[in-house]
Amino acid sequence: MNFSAPFCTRFTSINNDRKRQIDTLKVFNDNVTEITENTEYMVEFNAGDNKLAMLILLSPDFPMEKPLLKITPSISHQWVNENSEIVAAPGFLNFTVYSDLGRVVQAIIRDLQRNPPPLRHKESPVSVINRSKNLDHVETNSSSEDYEQSFEVMSSVIGRLHKMTVEELMKLDENEESLDQFISELPHVKSLKQTVTDMINCTDSLNMENIECKKKIHENEAQVEEKRAEYQKHSEKYENLYEEYRKLAEIRAPKNVKKRLKQKIASLDAESETVAENFLESNMTMDEFLTQYKALRMEVHALKVKEDQVSQRMQMDGSTP
């Protein structure tokens, strides 16, 4: 990259050509509105009963390349494509750096005024113009900002070079350190360096935060492992207690209680029958018989009462007695 005197002269010439073209636009046309300096312009005019506007968008390479011309609102015309861009006007087709932008735009407008084209959509002129301005500005906003930014950077560099002497320019061309220093002192380069520095600082800060977070993660992992071991211990204890509960619940189940009561009652009935037989066979006295038999029958009676209570409870619970 050589910033020599011819280089500076070339870009200064392009800048002057661009300015001259914009000046011709304002000289040969009325109602010229500057939307974005050096980039976007609008010319309003009447064509028959319709109020139209031509938008002129200049790229960073203008006038080395053609401008973008658009008509709003949309019209039906052989020079205009479906995107409302002028593509086939005679003067526009042969546009070069030596053409006059103002005369080209003027010729197109005059032809449209002599032969008013129909609108593609019928709307009021004022609303169409306002809406077209807004829509076109939205559509070209991003590109216009890019063009403007690029042009500002180029203008800044050219301006600084233009103020330098031939000796200083030759030094830039011959001395790499001087060129590096010149570049590093450019405003947009300084801004980029500051952005890089800020990003590095931000990255370092995030890195420190990540290290702290990593420590906390390890601590939390240890706590989780401890809790997991504790949970395992309590889980095993719970399983043992639950098994014990299940066995006790099985024993205390009404049907099993009733079954054991029946077995006990049957056993006592058999025992009381044995006592009666022994008495009849004179194997015991009257007092012994009465004492033993009475005790057995009372116990049987008490057990039968409990059995009835269990049966009633089972009926209330919907279980089969």
3D structure, described in words:
Mean pLDDT is 82; it is low at 1-5, 124-129 and 135-140. This protein has helices spanning 5-28, 90-93, 101-114, 125-162, 166-174, 176-184, 187-251, 254-280, 286-317; strands at 32-36, 40-47, 50-57, 68-72. Helices cover 69% and strands 8% of the residues. The protein is elongated. With 321 residues, the chain is an alpha+beta fold. Component of the ESCRT-I complex, a regulator of vesicular trafficking process. Required for the sorting of endocytic ubiquitinated cargos into multivesicular bodies. May be involved in cell growth and differentiation. It is a peripheral membrane protein. InterPro entries: ESCRT_assembly_dom, Helix_hairpin_bin_sf, Mod_r, UBQ-conjugating_enzyme/RWD.
Concise description?
This protein is an alpha+beta fold and 321 residues long. It has helices at 5-28, 90-93, 101-114, 125-162, 166-174, 176-184, 187-251, 254-280, 286-317, and strands spanning 32-36, 40-47, 50-57, 68-72. It is found in: Late endosome membrane.
